[in-house]
Design a protein that fits this description.
With 402 residues, the chain is an alpha/beta fold. The protein is built from ten helices and 14 strands. The strands form four sheets. The chain has a five-stranded parallel beta sheet with strand order 3-2-1-4-5, with helices on both faces. Strands 7-6-9-12 form a four-stranded mixed beta sheet. A three-stranded mixed beta sheet has the order 8-14-13, with no helix packed on it. It binds copper (II) ion.
């Protein structure tokens, strides 16, 4: 792979970008939950990837080479090598006439280069077989027409047209390049601006032949070439580039925002956790340190599980007696196996824990000593008209604070 950087300063800018990208990842990893760090990481990676792609496109589309280069002519002086670049115009009579004319010149060597017409979408998905086959067929037909042994060779390239020309120079030192295209932005053919790009990039005489179906070839004047160049600029460096830049920028802003959120969440994290654990208002003032040290007491809610004096089974907590130290919060882990919430409510002790279905941990905190009756305030034990809600050992019991 070629380097995506055009200059050292660009590489440096990219490095700064990478560092700026790493910052939110590190922040998120250090301060937030693991998933946030992963999310930020993916975001930053995406943003960097977009930036690399953007630079690669920039390089391809605006080859800002200050020095034009071309392969040196080696071999006899009289030899004349011509690179003819064509694809959709390969079947045109006008192109054959020109190729035959050139091939007949003394010392002439021709290379017909057919860059496959692969759309950007096809390049991404890898669906390049059809355009490649198409180019091969056209090239074979064209070579058949000029006849083998006439000093004309052919080559199909999978690369983008401009790169295909550069690649061809590696093995074929051309003295002249002929670019044959359709007249206007081709319907899937070689773009008419290709000639201008090759001219800008390589120090080789470039002739642009515009061949419209069934007509003779013409060479566009400077005005027309300038128009093609503007079409190229409009098609490439305009909106697409701005959109990419905006997306890359947005990615980084999003990553920074997420890490800021992580930072803020971290600040409030423990408080939030406490509030979530406790359904009692008093619990909000519990210090995180004392909560962390608190022991855990388990109880399980099982509907229709405990035999009552009436011979029926009633909803019940497996443990209904709780002993706490005044001012020392107790963690209560309640496994509510029912599909509805139940509660541990002791109005006198200011306790009101709503136990949601599933296993959750709540905070039981009592601020004054005493033996407090608690009961479930959420209608249950419906088979017995709520009997369990008023009977200790079922959906009721005592909290003893000392
Ligand atoms: Cu209940």
């Amino acid at each position: 792979m070629r380097s995506p950087f055009q200059s050292e300063s660009e590489a440096f800018r990219f490095l700064v970008l990478v560092m700026l990208g790493l910052l939110p990842i590190v922040l998120a990893a250090a301060l937030g939950p693991a998933w946030l760090a992963v999310a930020v990481f993916v975001f930053v990676l995406g943003a960097l990837w977009m930036r690399v792609m953007q630079m690669r496109m920039h390089r391809r589309r605006n080859p800002e080479v200050s020095l034009k280069s071309a392969p040196p002519h080696r071999g006899p002086r009289a030899e004349r090598r011509v690179l003819v670049v064509a694809n959709d115009t390969l079947g045109e009579q006008a192109l054959h006439l020109e190729v035959e004319r050139l091939a007949a010149l003394p010392g002439a060597h021709l290379l017909l280069l057919a860059p496959a017409l692969i759309s950007r979408g096809a390049r991404v998905t890898g669906a390049v077989d059809r355009p490649l086959d198409e180019a091969r067929e056209r090239l074979a037909a064209a070579l058949d027409r000029v006849g083998r042994g006439s000093g004309v060779a052919g080559e199909v390239s999978e690369a983008e047209p401009l790169e295909a020309v550069e690649d061809a120079f590696a093995t074929f030192a051309a003295d002249e390049v002929i670019i044959a295209t359709g007249g206007e932005r081709a319907r899937g053919g070689l773009e008419p601006w290709l000639a201008g790009l090759v001219r800008e990039r390589f120090a080789v005489p470039v002739r642009h032949l515009v061949i419209e179906s069934g007509r003779s070839a013409r060479e566009p004047d400077e005005l027309a070439e300038a128009r093609y160049r503007r079409q190229f600029d409009r098609a490439h460096s305009g909106n697409g580039k701005i959109a990419l830049e905006a997306i890359a920028g947005l990615g980084i802003v999003a990553a920074l925002t997420m890490s800021a959120v992580a930072l803020v969440n971290r600040g409030h994290g423990t408080e939030t956790a406490t509030a979530a654990l406790s359904s009692g208002e008093a619990a909000a003032s519990i210090s995180p340190a004392s909560l962390a040290a608190a022991k855990v007491v388990d109880t399980t809610i099982i509907p229709e599980s405990k035999l009552g004096p009436d011979g029926k089974k009633h909803d019940a907590y497996t443990k209904t007696e709780f002993a706490v130290k005044v001012g020392q919060p107790l963690k209560l882990r309640i496994d509510n196996t029912d599909n509805q919430p139940h509660s541990i409510t002791a109005p006198e002790a200011q306790v009101d824990i709503i136990a949601m279905p599933g296993v959750h941990t709540y905070v039981l905190d009592v601020t004054k000593p005493g033996k407090f009756l608690w009961f479930c305030v959420l209608p249950c034990d419906s088979n017995s008209k709520g009997w369990a809600m008023k009977h200790q050992g079922y959906m009721s019991g005592y909290i003893t604070a000392t």
